[in-house]
Amino acid sequence: MKRAVVMGGSYAGLFAARVLSDVADEVVVLEPDDIGADGTGSRAPQRRQLHALLAQGHRQLERWFPGITAELVADGARMGEGGDVRFYVDGRLKAPADGLRMLGAGRPLLESGVRRRVAALPNVRTVRTHARGLVLDGGRVRGVTTAEGEVVDAGFAVDAMGRSSRLGHWLEEAGWERAPVARMRIDLGYATASFRRGDELGTTVVAHSMAGPKSAYQPTLTEPGALAAVEGDRWSVVLAGYADHRPVADPAAFLARMRRCVEPLRTVAEACEMTGGVDTFRFTESVRRDYTRLGRLPGGLVAVGDALASVNPVYGHGLTLAALEANCLAAHLRSSGTAWREPGWGYFRRAAVAVDAAWQLSTTADLAQPHVTGPYPLGYRLLRWAGDRLTEASVLDSAVNTAYMNVAHLVEHPRALTRPALLLRAARVLLAAGDRA
Ligand SMILES: Cc1cc2nc3c(=O)[nH]c(=O)nc-3n(C[C@H](O)[C@H](O)[C@H](O)COP(=O)(O)OP(=O)(O)OC[C@H]3O[C@@H](n4cnc5c(N)ncnc54)[C@H](O)[C@@H]3O)c2cc1C
Question: For residue 89, is it within any domain?
Fold first, then answer.
């Protein structure tokens, strides 16, 4: 491959550029924002919200950028494992999950670490411009047009333009089909604030609290929220709520709500000074574009990151999906010497496995909210019932919680939760707890 173009130079685009740098003579990243070395120039509005990197996301980060954890930690990020990473359901601390490691870092720091590594690759360069369309000829990508009307010749193009990607529109204009879109309306509100960090929580790096079966997934027993130790000796704290229970940008209201959260968030509300204001974000729906359902597709074209699927951020899947899709892209490109020229079915089928997993986890959980009205997957009632039992057992038992968290962190596929040995163990744990009660 002589040249590949990546449209969008944020997290997913950077991973795609890293993968392509192994197989293309040259990789050109088109990115309109002047993101800057510290990552603060990005206009992506979600960058100011707390971004948790799941255990699988961290593994893949190290896979593609070996040694990057040490660099990020030197820049102030924190690495947590064992008791440093605490998960709560309905106000109860869950049993420890073995081997779960999480990095505490702000999104700009994390992304700028990746950007620095990609910028150091000799065959990757970034051009500050918008992609405006595809040049298609003979059923294949031949290049990308820019906002300035120039054509960047390329045999392979990656859509990494985020949720608002216009690729479907461009394909339709050129006489191709637009990928079918699945949506789930969730009407989620998000709010993040920063606090000065001392030693009030010891070695804690991440604390994450959700409503569960005991509260019928409503914020009645405790407010859902999370915190992470990040660079600059700060706590980044996020609160989330659905529909009318959205958090607002008022600092006093934010603090009052933190005092109704689990103990680590309450402690930070009491002991630490809030620095700056509260940033809010409204996430109306989870969306995925399913290219595997198209009848035809131009050769040399794939989509990654939010341009492919963007799910409820409460579960922290986005960055990890982007990295898993990079693996899928690498596997597709390696599958034959000419795979890059052909329609990317192999890529989209692989990526769909990861996207299906994240979609299933997040939409099944979201359907527990009364205002979320579907679409319901086949067997939803059974999934919900089994999921509730596993969640309860994961509070009490380390082995069940390890299996549960491995799935939540996309280390294992959700089907791992249907293993008979795990279900039996969960049943025994719940029976024993019932006997004790
Ligand atoms: C409130 C909130 C909280 C979140 N929390 C988490 C979390 O805790 N953990 C997690 O893993 N994920 C989280 N996510 C998801 C995560 O932010 C996204 O999955 C991630 O940003 C996707 O990266 P991306 O590169 O695909 O898209 P984006 O980061 O949106 O980047 C798209 C890029 O494309 C560029 N672009 C747009 N149009 C063009 C064009 N025409 N030409 C060229 N470039 C273009 C943009 O400038 C931008 O740089 C959260 C999301 C939200 C909304």
Answer: yes
348 and 394 share one domain:
no
Q: 153 and 7, same structural domain?
A: yes
Give SS3 for 36. coil
374: in domain: no
Q: Any residues with CB less than 8 A from the CB of 410 and at least 6 apart, and which? A: 54, 56, 57, 317, 320, 321, 324, 354, 357, 358
* Atom from ligand 1 closest to the CA of residue 30: 43
Q: Which alpha helices (DSSP H) does 99-150 contain, by range?
A: 107-119
Q: What is residue 278's three-state secondary structure?
A: strand
- 402 plus 293 within the same structural domain: no
Q: Cβ neighbours of residue 194 under 8 Å, at least 6 residues apart?
A: 230, 234, 235, 236, 237, 274, 275, 276
End-to-end CA distance of the chain: 65
Convert the pLDDT of each residue in 192-239 to its tens digit.
Answer: 999 999 999 999 999 999 999 999 999 999 999 999 999 999 999 999
User: Rounded to whole angstroms, how far apart are CA atoms 210 and 221?
Assistant: 10
pTM: 0.97
For ligand 1, atom 15, name the residue with the nearest CA. Answer: 318
- Atom from ligand 1 closest to the CA of residue 43: 47
Residues 97 and 222 in one domain: yes
* Claim to verify: residue 334 and residue 358 sit in the same structural domain: yes
437 pLDDT band (50/70/90 cuts)?
A: low
Q: For residue 369, tell me if it sits in a domain.
A: no
Question: Best substitution site from 14, 40, 51 to test ligand 1's pocket, by max atoms within 8 Å of Cβ?
Answer: 51
What pLDDT, on a 0 to 100 scale, did the predictor assign at position 374?
87
Angle at the Cα of 285 from the Cα atoms of 301 and 360, rounded to 5 degrees: 75
CA neighbours closer than 13 Å in the CB half-sphere of residue 101: 11
- Which of 127, 144, 188, 306 to probe ligand 1 with, by most ligand atoms within 8 A of CB? 306
Tell me the residue range of the domain where 391 lies. 380-436
Together in a domain, 238 and 339: no
Residues near ligand 1 with C-beta < 6 Å? 7-13, 30-33, 42, 44, 46, 49-52, 130-131, 160-162, 190, 281, 283, 305-307, 313, 316-320, 322
**Residue of the CA atom closest to atom 12 of ligand 1:** 318
> Total domain count for the chain?
3
Q: Which of 246, 262, 283 is the endpoint of a domain?
A: 283
